From TrEMBL:
Biological source species: marine sediment metagenome
Name used for this protein in its record: Uncharacterized protein
SUPFAM superfamilies (UniProt xref): P-loop containing nucleoside triphosphate hydrolases
InterPro entries on file: P-loop_NTPase (IPR027417)
């Protein structure tokens, strides 16, 4: 997770694929949920 945070701190984009949303949420500004190849939601932190 430190690597992902370092990328974010530099203002870079990263595609992080995980089945565990608890890992994704803390380091994301935006994420997209996909189920069986279909987008089921797009979320932004506010």
């Amino acid at each position: 997770m430190k690597f992902i945070q370092a990328i974010k701190d530099k203002g870079k984009s990263c595609v992080y694929i995980s089945h565990n949303i608890a890992n994704v949420y803390p380091v994301s500004d935006r994420f997209v949920a996909i189920d069986r190849g279909k987008v089921v939601g797009s979320y932004n932190h506010e």
